[in-house]
Amino acid sequence: MNRPKPFSMIREFHLADWFTLGNACAGMGALFAVMSFLQSGDARHLQYACALIPLALVFDVLDGRIARWRQKSSALGRELDSLADIISFGVAPAAIAYGCGMQGLYDRIVLVFFVACGVSRLARFNVTAEKLSAGSDKVAYFEGTPIPTSMVLVALLWVAAAQGALGEQLWGGVWWLGGFRLHPLVLLFAVFGSLMVSRIRIPKI
């Protein structure tokens, strides 16, 4: 009986997969930076968190290009890509929003909705990728906006952190509804989440 070699899964990784892991690591770095802000109150940590999301996007773009260049892709790589994306472009932006002050009950519900939409969007893409590629090695279009569009939200939060518009000073202020807080700015996450699970066709460049 042949035993698997140590770290046999790692040995099967393609070069593109390592860039995908770089994406996930950047997302985790953003989460740690938000935690550092919540502990220290130093807004620079929020800016660091926001800055790591574009880095994650760079890794995300490069992994696809490298896979096509080397003509090496796999189901494992596709799953890795989706898992990394949900960390960097789903969970991390929601955590950054929470750190910026969207901490009311309604805020949390909207942020959970946003992440759930991101997970659903990526799952739908994975199960329909073969159909959408129409026999080629590249998907012709996306159904729903891609999850990296959350970069727009992150950019807004970076500006808010830079201006000190955090907590009760967030743009749009805070509403009290039924004894619970809602920051109107969080509704942008509801809009972006809804667009991700829509049937809008976005051509893939």
Coarse morphology: globular
Q: Give the strand content.
A: 5-15%
* N to C succession of SSEs: HHHHHEHEEHE
Mean pLDDT: 86
The helicity comes to: 55-70%
First and last CA, distance: 47 Å
Count of runs of 4 or more consecutive helical residues = 7
Biggest sheet details: 2 strands, antiparallel
Can you tell me the residue ranges where pLDDT is under 50 for at least 5 consecutive residues? Answer: none
User: In terms of structural class, how would the helical and strand content be classed?
Assistant: mainly alpha
**Widest sheet: strand ordering:** 1-4
The number of E-state strands comes to 4
Radius of gyration: 19 Å
What is this structure, in a nutshell?
With 205 residues, the protein is mainly α.
Structural features:
single chain, 205 residues, mainly alpha, two-stranded antiparallel sheet, 4 strands, CDP-OH_P_trans, membrane, phospholipid biosynthesis, transmembrane
Describe this structure in words.
It is a single chain. By secondary structure, the protein is mainly alpha-helical. It has helices at 8-11, 15-40, 44-70, 75-100, 105-133, 151-163, 187-196, and strands at residues 141-143, 175-177, 180-182, 201-203. The strands form 2 sheets. It has a two-stranded antiparallel ribbon with strand order 1-4. Strands 2-3 form a two-stranded antiparallel sheet. Helix 4 packs parallel to helix 6 (151-163). It is globular, with a radius of gyration of 19 Å.
Q: Layout of helices and strands, plus pairs?
A:
Elements: H1 8-11, H2 15-40, H3 44-70, H4 75-100, H5 105-133, E1 141-143, H6 151-163, E2 175-177, E3 180-182, H7 187-196, E4 201-203
Antiparallel strand pairs: 1-4, 2-3
Main location: membrane
Family: Belongs to the CDP-alcohol phosphatidyltransferase class-I family.
Subcellular location: Endomembrane system
